[in-house]
Amino acid sequence: MYRYIIRRLLMLPILLFGVSILIFGMLQFLTPYERAALYVSDIPKREGAIDDIVEKYGLNDPFYEQYGRWIGNVLKGDLGFSKTGKQPVAELIKTYFPATAELALWAAFPLIYIGIQLGILSATHQNSLLDWFVRTFAVIGWSFPTFVFGLLMLMIFYAKLDWFPAGRLSDWAAQAIASEGFRQITRMHSFDALLNGRLDIFWDALRHIILPVITLSYLSWALLMRVTRSSMLEVMRQEYVNTARAKGLANRDVVNRHARPNAMIPVVTIGGLTLVGLLSGLVITETIFNYRGMGYFFAQAASQLDVITVLGFAMFNGAILVLGNLVVDILYGFIDPRVRLS
C-alpha cells in the first residue's frame, strides 16, 4: 500500500508540470504585442512604447525562457496582477476560494449520499415501479442544463415564494461579519458563524446557500445515481453474490456486505472528480445565484478579457484537479485490495 502511495506521489510533480506547460502554452497563441497589452493598464501613445514593453518583459524570448520566468513566479505564489480585481491573482483566490469551498462542502453530502442511495435502491428493485421512478428522476436531472434549472429555482423560491434569497449574505449579516467583533477563521460564513456563536448569521448564510446546493446536488447526483445503479447491477450478477444468497444470507446483508463495497470503485471515481469539479469553481451556478465565489469572479474576468487572471485561476484549478485525482487514486487502495497488492 505504501509503495502504491509513494508511486502516486512521485507522479504528482510530473502531472503538475504537464498542466503548467499546457496552461502557459495557451498564452503563446497571442502575439508578443497582444501579450504586451496584458501587462499595462494604458499603453503610452509615444512611438515605440509597445516595443519597449515587449523588450522589458521578454515577450520575444524563446518559449522555455518565458516559461521559466513564469513558473518561477508561480512557485513563489505570484500568479500575476488582475486588472479586474485590481489586486494580485493569488489574493483574489484567497478571497473567493472559501466561498466556493463552502458551497462545495454543503453540496457534498446530499450529492454523494442521495446519489449513492438512489442508485442502490434502483438496482435492488430492478424493473420495478420504484426503479422506473428513480431512473426517470435521474434522467430529468441529467437532461436539465444548469442555467435552466438554476433559473427555475430562482423563479419559484426567490421571485415567487421569497423563501431563499440570492447572493451570499443579507446586508445586515455582511455588516456583522465585517465588524471587528466577528472572527473570520475559515472565511466560510456559515462555519464562521457557528464558531462565533452567531446562529442568526448561520441561518442567514444557510438560506442563501440552499438554492445553489439544490441545483448542484440534483444535477450531479443524477449522474452518480446512474453510475451506482450500473455498478451494483454488474456486481449483483457475480458468482460470489449468488453464493452468498445460496448460503441463506438476508438480502440486506448480501447488498451491504458483499455487493455495495465492490460496486463503490467506479462510484468513488465519479464522486471524487465531481467534488473536485465543485472546488474548481462553479461558474454557471455562482453567476446565476450571484454567489461571489471563484466561479463568479472567473466569469467576470473572462468577460473583460483579463487573460492574466484567467490563466492564474486555470493554474489553480488544474492543481486542484491533479491533487483530487491523487486522493481518488489513494482511496482506491483502501477500497480495492487488488490495488494494494499490485
Question: What would your notes on this structure say?
Answer:
The protein is mainly alpha-helical. It folds into two domains: 11-82, no CATH class; 87-170 and 210-341, MetI-like (MetI-like fold, Orthogonal Bundle), CATH 1.10.3720.10. The protein contains 16 helices and two strands. The protein has helices spanning 2-27, 32-36, 49-56, 63-75, 89-124, 129-143, 146-160, 171-178, 189-195, 199-235, 239-246, 251-279, 283-288, 294-303, 307-335, 337-341, and strands at 81-82, 87-88. Strands 1-2 form a two-stranded antiparallel ribbon. Strand 1 (81-82) and strand 2 (87-88) form a beta hairpin. The termini are close together. The mean pLDDT is 81.
Note the topology:
Layout: H1 2-27, H2 32-36, H3 49-56, H4 63-75, E1 81-82, E2 87-88, H5 89-124, H6 129-143, H7 146-160, H8 171-178, H9 189-195, H10 199-235, H11 239-246, H12 251-279, H13 283-288, H14 294-303, H15 307-335, H16 337-341
Antiparallel strand pairs: 1-2
Helix pairs in contact: 1-15, 5-6, 5-10, 5-12, 6-10, 7-10, 9-10, 10-12, 11-12, 12-15, 14-15
Largest sheet: 2 strands, antiparallel
Beta strand count: 2
The residue-averaged pLDDT reads 81
What is the chain-wise order of helices and strands?
Answer: HHHHEEHHHHHHHHHHHH
CATH classification, class level of the largest domain: Mainly Alpha
What is the assigned CATH homologous superfamily of the largest domain? MetI-like
Task: Work out the helicity level.
Answer: over 70%
The whole-angstrom Rg is 24 Å
Q: Can you tell me the CATH topology of the largest domain? A: MetI-like fold
* Percentage of residues in DSSP E strands: under 5%
Distance between the termini: 9 Å
- Indicate the CATH architecture of the largest domain: Orthogonal Bundle
Structural class: mainly alpha
Uncertain segments? none
